[in-house]
Design goal:
single chain, 418 residues, alpha+beta, Resuscitation-promoting factor rpfb fold, 4 domains, 4-stranded antiparallel beta sheet, 7 helices, 24 strands, elongated
């Protein structure tokens, strides 16, 4: 037998990219509309549209009966009838789709992205989720759907917040850095679509490119962004992106409910926490300080989601409280500083001994408190018994650090007279 599989009903979405987020001086070079004629461009819809694509029945062809019909036609006038019975029903029929009622654009949100690797990671996650359908009663989780972000999946290294600190290392934890921007964009589509928030967590540090208190970070296995489709119709997640923006659009039918956002004033504002750290290069002099990061203030804020019916009547309020702790004010100090666990006995700077004789160099280092000295001998052109290089010159290394000097032992021949 020859089988023709049934085809499920589905919804086709045609998005209109109005490029409202583009600067007028920014050149759009990848728009498919550039290849359209004026008539085709004029026929484009003014808004995103969603159309039901009807299901199709399937059938099974009995090859023996087909052969008999072909033989009968061949022996006759060359034509004949081949009866096909489409009896194989699809799992999701046109009637099933129509039972959900009309689907329309419920919510849409756009954020703007910088950075090459960051943009790549955001677009990759968006493309993977694009077109996914969340059925009534189902919960959609980004981490369950995407899994761990890995190099094998195409994700790249970029900066991420690790243990409350911004990290930009090429470390496995930084693979997929930047996808929190997709998490924020998705969460706002959930928020304004009036769907049930299952899990989201704002960043510990506030980034001004996101709506204050109404944003979400992503990690693996947590934090996650997840929502439950508590409506009676499916939710189709549609994503789109340009070189500078990412957009998430929800198509569904939430019963005409509208959600607004209200944000409180900031409260409990605190100054940055001062964090003294050891200077890894040991070039901060004892008693001196070097600011590595000025830090940022912390505060609390409450964002309230207000649910209204189609007539604008308030149905309920859902508050989301969050406290941004702010970035630390990181100050580098010498390892001898008691604030980083030092003894308080601070060293003198290592004197520069290049050009001195070996004996003079050792004496100068000893006077500064550096008696653990490693001497290396080389033969190089120049005056003999002179230090040609050293380590830690001008620095303030820990007590007991070995200072290395290199001494020339070559006896150059005397200059010949004229």
């Amino acid at each position: 037998t020859l089988e023709i599989d049934p085809v499920d009903a589905t919804w086709e979405i045609v998005e209109v990219d109005d490029h409202e987020d583009w600067d007028e001086n920014y050149q759009i070079t990848d728009s498919p509309e550039e290849d359209l004629t004026e008539e085709e461009r004029a026929a484009l819809p003014d808004d995103d549209t969603i159309t039901l694509v009807e299901s199709k029945m399937g059938t099974r062809l009995n090859t023996e009966l087909v052969a008999e019909a072909v033989e009968a036609a061949a022996l006759g006038d060359g034509t004949g009838d081949l009866e096909l019975e489409f009896t194989e029903e699809p799992e999701f029929t046109t009637e099933d789709a129509l039972a959900y009622g009309e689907l329309y654009e419920v919510s849409e949100f756009t954020t703007y992205k910088p950075g090459v690797n960051r943009a790549h990671n955001i677009d990759l996650m968006a493309d993977t989720i694009d077109g996914h359908i969340v059925w009534p009663g189902e919960t959609f989780s980004v981490n369950e759907f995407i899994g761990r972000r890995t190099l094998d999946k195409g994700y790249e290294y970029d900066c991420a917040i690790v243990s409350g600190e911004l990290s930009c290392e090429d470390d496995p934890v930084n693979v997929g850095g930047g996808v929190s921007q997709f998490g924020t964009t998705l969460f706002n589509a959930i928020f304004f679509g009036c769907y049930e928030d299952v899990e989201h967590q704002p960043h510990s540090i506030y980034f001004s490119k996101y709506p204050e208190g109404r944003e979400a970070t992503l990690g693996y296995p947590s934090p996650d962004v997840a929502f439950r489709n508590d409506s009676d119709a499916p939710v189709i997640i549609k994503t789109s992106h340009t070189p500078r923006s990412i957009t998430v659009t929800f198509f569904g039918n939430n019963g005409g409910i509208i959600c607004d956002s209200e944000r409180s004033e900031r409260s409990g504002v605190t100054s940055p926490v001062v964090d003294y750290q050891t200077d890894p290069e040991v070039f901060v002099a004892p008693g001196q300080e070097k600011v590595k990061s000025k830090g940022s203030r912390g505060w609390s804020v409450t964002v309230t989601r207000v649910f209204r019916d189609a007539n604008g009547n308030e149905l309920k309020r859902e508050p989301f409280y969050w406290r941004y702790r702010g970035e630390k004010n990181v100050i580098l100090v010498h390892p001898c500083d008691p604030r980083v666990g030092g003894s308080g006995k601070c060293p003198n700077p290592v004197p520069s001994v290049t050009g001195m004789t070996e004996a003079a160099a050792l004496s100068a280092l000893a006077s500064a408190g550096y008696t653990d000295v490693s001497v290396n001998y080389v033969d190089v052109p120049g005056p003999s018994d002179r230090v040609v290089s050293q380590t830690h010159a001008g620095g303030y290394p820990d007590e007991g650090t070995t200072i290395s000097i290199t001494v020339d032992t070559t006896d150059d021949p005397p200059d010949e007279g004229d």
